[in-house]
Amino acid sequence: MSNYELKVQNIREQVSVLQHQPEPERSSIAQFKIDVPEKRLAHKDRTFVDVPSASTSTLRSAIKTAEVGNRFVEEQPRNIEEELHQAKKLISTLRSKIASELKMTEKLRKAKGEALEESKKNLRKLMKNEKLKIELGLLRRDYLRCQDYIREFEAMVDRNQEDCRF
């Protein structure tokens, strides 16, 4: 079993334990803490990026702060200044979290574009080198003959595909 599957199984076990506890024992969300060494963000291109656990700890503090916000809405506040400070802390934590994830997404998009450009450049370079070698007569005859066979085969496959379409 992979590391990811073990983590998923561990989380499912914790959730099932919490579901079977009586209601008074699981009164707060803050009791349910999951220690995750890394958080993996999935993006549209299905690549994964490791994010340090420091960012998940800010999420845990945000959950605690959200709990304070719930208390503020449901009950009469005990200390308005403290509750207001906790609410502001929640907002700033969530804003920074969203900003960091947007920045990570932008970095991934930029890195993907750079890698694509680099591979295109390398392919053009290889094709240019091969054409130059052919023009200078530096390639062996058997290589050139193989290239001719490959081109003929590709043309034949293309013709067969066109015939099958009609």
TrEMBL record:
Protein name according to UniProt: Uncharacterized protein
Taxonomic source organism: Allacma fusca
